[in-house]
TrEMBL record, chains A, B:
InterPro entries: cNMP-bd_dom, cNMP-bd_dom_sf, Env_Response_Regulators, HTH_CRP, RmlC-like_jellyroll, Tscrpt_reg_HTH_Crp-type_CS, WH-like_DNA-bd_sf, WH_DNA-bd_sf. The keyword DNA-binding applies. Signal peptide: none annotated. Pfam families: cNMP_binding, HTH_Crp_2. Residues 18-88 form the Cyclic nucleotide-binding domain. It comes from the Bacteria. Keywords: DNA-binding, Transcription, Transcription regulation. This is Crp/Fnr family transcriptional regulator.
Amino acid sequence: MIAVPTRCIDCAVRDVALCASMSDDELRALSDMGRRRVLPAGQVVSWAGEPSSSCASVVSGALKATASTADGREQIVGLLFPGDFVGQPFQDDASLTVTTLVATDLCIYPRAGFEHVVDDHPRMERLLLERTLASLSQARGRMLSLARRSAKERVAGFLLELADHTGESGPDGIRVRIPISRGDLADYLGLTIETVSRQLTLLKASGVLGVARGGRDCTIRDRARLEGVAGPQ
Amino acid sequence: MIAVPTRCIDCAVRDVALCASMSDDELRALSDMGRRRVLPAGQVVSWAGEPSSSCASVVSGALKATASTADGREQIVGLLFPGDFVGQPFQDDASLTVTTLVATDLCIYPRAGFEHVVDDHPRMERLLLERTLASLSQARGRMLSLARRSAKERVAGFLLELADHTGESGPDGIRVRIPISRGDLADYLGLTIETVSRQLTLLKASGVLGVARGGRDCTIRDRARLEGVAGPQ
DNA sequence: CGAACTGTTGAAGTTGATCAAGTCCGGTGG
DNA sequence: CCACCGGACTTGATCAACTTCAACAGTTCG
């Protein structure tokens, strides 16, 4: 871990993270408490079952939040990107394991102190509430996908989400980079590695998708057809 | 719909619904706005896609919140019981369809007015935040189940949840009443009616579960064994 | 009684998981 | 530079679980 002393005002996510709800002056309370840390890929930030002692904002990088059964079956219940909030305030034990997927820069607050700031800053509390409601909506949408959509629909839907979120239009379609490994993608979509791989191969074979070597960089060549594969909605 | 004029102070869920966060005096604001309505079973309270114009507290009865694909596949993403909050504040369009499962008594507020009350009552906002965080945790647990647990585990797990929530110990085990139809249970567990029925039959055959005629009233004869079937956690 | 539901059971069909080889690729060291 | 190694990904064959389709039984209520 490397400490990264920085002023909040200069922070890359000053306007998108929860801090966006606070004036520069108000930020002092958070700022004094927050500790910037750069973690390498694959580092566990919080273990399910352990006391949840801190919260954080993602400044750069990416993380996964996983729930798992006692016998090791795993499900990624959320992916976290810059500006997202990490942690479970008002809850004594963490129910999720949070792990960095790539080198990740976090702004970490002690949970108790963070809760205190929330107490004192209604606008931040409101923002947290709205974000939590949005996460809940998203989680419910994913419940529907996990329970009712086919493997093909899930994979296609994921690519479309990526396209909407980080896609860049290139010469022969929309270029997207799958930000996680096949294994993590399988854990996210509720499938196995093999099934994910096969579905991507099918999309490639049908000409809808181009997959560059390495398997991470893709080109959506025919969005309309991909939407057809993804099924309704 | 039948109007049920009542004073909040006498309300059955005065101490468990969101109103528990408010003093008797403060309740006046909500009280003036709230409208009690008794709806029959099978009534849609809010349609996915339509503007979400109201919120409510469940006073008695039960409802289901469903998400569905455009081609009609359905998933129940939440069951709602007395004291629970219904609705999606701070969101203009409903993403879920909410339907009564049995005759249900609701205390309905116009959404705008409700949001206003939340603005003015930090304790209510905090309670709403905590409940939303709890719902999110629950939704994530269900994502894990829907994606990774077998039909057998889901059915057994559901019965155990019921036992913990509403079970009464009887002479030959824990008596539980399945509060919904096989169809709704299937929609909740992410299975088909037939699979749910078969799993219940298997549990009955193995002596773990007693099922009375009608199929709704069950007796968990061997909780330990049922927990074994439900799998880890 | 009989109609309409709701639930159960059976047989066949699919989907995706599992098991088992491969292949591709980046990195290391001879 | 190339051989080798290990991890990530792909592909193939088989298998089990769950769905689908279809018929039947039980319950409720006119």
